[in-house]
Amino acid sequence: MMPPAPPPARVTWREWAGFMAMVVGMFMAILDIQIVSASVNEIQAGLSASPDEVSWVQTSYLVAEIVMIPLSGWLSRLLSTRVLFVASAIGFTVFSLACSSATSLQEMIVWRALQGFIGGAMIPTVFATAFLLFPPDRRARVSVMIGLTATLAPTIGPTLGGWLTETFSWHWLFLINVPFGIAVAAAVWSWMHLDKPNLALRRGFDWFGLGLLALFLGNVEYVLEEGSRWNWFEDETIVRCTVLAGVAGVLFFWRMLTHADPLVELRTFRNSNFSIGCLFSFVLGSGMYGTVYMIPLFLGRVRGYDSLQIGETMFVTGFGMFAAAPVVGILVKRIDVRFIIVSGLLMTGVAIWWTGHLTKDSAFGELLGPQVLRGFAMMFVMIASNQMALGRLPPMMLKNAAGLYNLMRNLGGAVGLAVINTVITTRMAVHGESLREHVTWSHPPAIAMLDNLAARFGAVSPDGAQSMALKRIAAMLDQQALTLSYNDVFMAMGVAFFVAMPMALLLAKASAAEVAGGGH
């Protein structure tokens, strides 16, 4: 197959409009990862599901999406960028409508899985199109736009989800996709004509490879999502899925490395900048999704905030992102991109470490500074990593590489959440035991607190005052242990970003201009 033509020197307004519509579609797909997170309780009540069961509303979407992302490169070559993206946008819209009308948990899981699988193609397709469509001198600006979209979407997801649920109902978490999905599909179909389909690829379609891909990534995602909740390998299902993922993974890598036309071209990892860029994408995914998961958890379980209050507290991260966008856009044109990555990792680590000093009374004021700094810093890492990982690849490799690059970010998020939940459980037990050692009948401050609480409750219920006071102290200890365990997690995440900094030295030295044009 002939490689795609080099990008034109000038992009027409139609191509710009079509690309902007694609960015909106990517925003929708990423947003739907987190938009339900602040409204899980309302969905649970609406579908008459248990707390354990309702988590599948999130898990089914992620498992299906992570299978599609690496497959999107092959599908884009087969169908063309325009056809794949439009089909993905239409499918995402149809299944969003189906999710809004679900009346049982089983229905919702099926529709969410299909929504995640079909919509997952939109994310990597945008990354590839940015480098195929735009000339080198425009790519820094476009990368800023993509980076802002990819990081802002999961940040405002809880905010938007909370507002929609509080104002209307949880059904609008999905209904809001419908008008935007229709508009995106129409705009891309009308204005985006980037490449032509290669239908000859269908004759050699690797169904066996597709099955191995689904088994491998699907089981990996399930184990990472559900492992902590079921005590990992104490659960028989987790053990079976781990074994299946291991066997399917070995066979998948063998198949992709030996097949004449593999669904996923793993040889792209021979490019050192791409491989290291994928590692940064993995680290960024763990930090981005980890913090977006942890802060609402703290605000909900410790502070007792509702979904709208959580969203309002987290929204400030977006200000940091918007402030960073023009700064990074200028810097990538003037200095070694490796310095931008190192500074971004350093600032992100500092921001997350700073967040790890929570108390049970921490609120908007205490979280404002670290959240703004984190939003500012993550833009540095994402935009610079995009340039280094994808900017030096030849056009014919970009579609496949974009899928792998985005896959690493999602896997980073999945691994990060799995580690976070395990550490929280472990450290909460340790902190709880340590706190209880100091709250004994021989500890005067504890006795004084018990007496004060008992006196206060005695005015309401004299017979049960002592018991109520003991329960209140136990709840306070649990709250404190939970807060300390969250701090441990944030500090460990901050250290992970510091540890990743030396990896930037392994990147080939290049200015932003060289990164943008070196592969062509």
What do you see in this structure?
There is one protein chain. The chain is an all-alpha fold and 520 residues long. 77% of the residues lie in helices and 0% in strands. It has helices at residues 13-34, 40-47, 51-54, 56-79, 81-100, 105-119, 122-133, 136-167, 172-175, 177-191, 207-226, 236-258, 272-301, 307-314, 317-331, 337-355, 364-390, 395-438, 444-458, 465-500, 512-517. Residues 1-5 and 516-520 have low confidence and may be disordered.
SSE layout and pairing:
Layout lengths: L12 H22 L5 H8 L3 H4 L1 H24 L1 H20 L4 H15 L2 H12 L2 H32 L4 H4 L1 H15 L15 H20 L9 H23 L13 H30 L5 H8 L2 H15 L5 H19 L8 H27 L4 H44 L5 H15 L6 H36 L11 H6 L3
Helix pairs in contact: 1-7, 1-8, 1-10, 4-5, 4-6, 4-7, 4-11, 4-18, 5-6, 5-10, 7-8, 7-18, 8-13, 8-14, 8-15, 8-17, 11-12, 11-18, 13-14, 13-17, 13-18, 13-20, 15-17, 16-17, 16-20, 18-20, 19-20
Tell me the number of helical segments per DSSP (H or I, 4 or more residues long).
Answer: 21
Structural class label: mainly alpha
Please state the oligomeric state of the protein chains shown. Answer: single chain
Q: Span from first to last CA?
A: 17 Å
Query: What is the number of E strands?
Result: 0
| Most strands sheet | none
Report Rg: 24 Å
Strand content: under 5%
Proportion of helical residues: over 70%
Poorly predicted ranges (pLDDT <50, ≥5 residues)? Answer: 1-5, 516-520
Mean pLDDT value:
81
Outline type? globular
